[in-house]
Design brief:
This protein has 458 residues and is α/β, with parallel strands linked by helices. It is 53% helix and 10% strand.
Length: 458
């Protein structure tokens, strides 16, 4: 068992039995569920919308090189600059070179899981560059010195009282500050940061192939200001974020909003096609798009798992997952958590340390049901498990247990050895440790199904 897996088990054990954590996460997700029910009412035929979106995204994944070339060509025609990054190291190096070229001292960032993936804040701070998260949730997480807890809602794990306490310690705000008070304070504080920043860094919800544009969705206006004020705009986007055409946004924007936050449409939706033109007053003078691989092609190599790259990062599967709802986002120790993270993170972070995530699932199938692009997540978790057992990743004790179970269950005489008491004693000795101290091991019936059948049918 790797150290990463040991840490996962220890952290999961702590979080799952922390009543305050359970109370906070269940309350916040219940609010999300209420909103999503309302948001879904905008679709006359939800299943048809999901099927169309799934078809388009999977088409892109299977023809990825063609769409990447088309996007690159169109974006360069728009006077933008494309940078290809094979991994996080290359992406960080390119960003630091841009910052050095422009003698940047301050960076403002809108919410982006891809920049979390490459840990750009840490790299910028090491170079003496002040990197400021401008999304309210991300800003709170940054102040707390933590990683985002959730793909969509970074600070879902904190109650309003905990956030008020954090702002009291950091800025001497009233310890009883309301969410409205804190939001107003952050808005005023960040306004000057936007206007004085040298570089704005964003992610991209979608890369639009036929126009060479990025589509950015957000609810606070911070993304728009991160693009408009600084002279340099850098986009960090995974190579899988492509959609074929700008007209596809009429499908993907409502789906993302409904499944992500329960809105009919996100408050701010921007389409950015390059740096500002001569007749424009707002916008960056230079715009870069860093197309990040970072082992996404390892997922692409897998015939069945590649469909997971269709994910539009709505977070619906996290909110639906009973495992995520109990152990929380930080326990996964990855950027992409929940069911989608359990499918792709082992390939992106290393199967030796992260293959256990695909076993951290009840396989209830709820994640598959709620996915807006119809990724069969629970089935992919089973595919991952099968692959790693084939590769010999299963522990020796588990292999022996499976061998013994197969031998016993293939022969009735082995299953009937000993009486009721002996069989239950043997089961307890073998399974009690792995079953755990908080669950009662079920008792075998006094009479097997085979015995009952014979008695009933003489």
């Amino acid at each position: 068992m790797s150290e990463t897996q040991k840490k996962f088990i220890a952290d999961a054990n702590i979080k799952a039995f922390n009543p305050e954590h359970r109370k906070t996460i269940n309350f916040n997700i219940s609010r999300y569920n209420e909103s999503v029910e309302k948001g879904m009412l905008q679709f006359k035929n939800t299943e048809l919308a999901k099927t169309r979106a799934a078809f388009l995204k999977y088409k892109v994944i299977n023809e990825l090189e063609n769409y990447l070339i088309e996007f690159e060509s169109k974006f360069i025609k728009n006077r933008g600059k494309i940078i290809w990054a094979q991994n996080a190291t290359e992406a960080v190096r390119e960003i630091l070179q841009i910052a050095d070229k422009h003698q940047a001292k301050k960076v403002v960032k809108s919410k982006s899981m891809t920049t979390e993936e490459i840990e750009i804040n840490t790299a910028l701070e090491k170079e003496g560059i002040n990197s400021i998260e401008t999304d309210l949730g991300e800003y709170i997480v940054q102040l707390a010195g933590e990683k985002p807890y959730h793909i969509v809602t970074p600070v879902m794990h904190k109650s309003k009282e905990e956030i008020a306490e954090l702002f009291n310690k950091q800025f001497d705000l009233d310890a009883n500050s309301t969410p409205e008070d804190i939001t107003s304070f952050v808005r005023d504080k960040l306004r000057n940061e936007f206007t004085s920043a040298d570089i704005g860094i964003t992610g991209s919800n979608f890369l639009i192939a036929d126009t060479g544009s990025i589509a950015l969705s957000e609810n606070e206006g911070n993304g728009m200001m991160s693009v408009s004020f600084p002279k340099i705009h850098i986009v960090v986007a995974g190579i899988e974020k492509l959609i074929p055409s700008i007209i596809d946004l009429e499908l993907f924007w409502p789906l993302l909003a409904s499944y992500g936050t329960g809105q009919a449409i996100t408050v701010y939706n921007s389409i950015i096609s390059g740096p500002k033109r001569k007749n424009e007053t707002d916008g960056p003078e230079e715009m870069y798009v860093i197309l990040l691989n970072n082992k996404r092609t390892e997922v692409l190599k897998k015939e069945r798992q590649r469909i997971a790259l269709s994910c539009i990062r709505c977070g619906a599967c996290l909110n639906a997952c009973p495992v995520y709802r109990n152990i929380g986002g930080h326990t996964y120790n990855t950027i992409y958590t929940g069911p989608i993270g359990s499918v792709i993170s082992p390939y992106m972070n290393g199967t030796e340390d992260y293959h256990h995530l695909s076993f951290a699932s009840s396989l209830c199938g709820k994640c598959t049901d709620v996915c807006p692009v119809k990724i069969p997540l629970h089935k992919l978790l089973l595919v991952n498990r099968k692959d790693w057992v084939k590769e010999g990743s299963a522990p020796g004790s588990e292999k022996k247990a499976m061998w013994g179970m197969k031998k016993i269950m293939l022969k009735r005489k082995y299953m009937n050895i000993g009486g009721y008491g002996i069989r239950n004693y043997a089961l307890k000795k073998i399974l009690s440790k792995s079953w755990g101290p908080r669950r009662d091991l079920p008792q075998l019936a006094r009479k097997s199904f085979n015995q009952q059948w014979k008695e009933k049918n003489n």
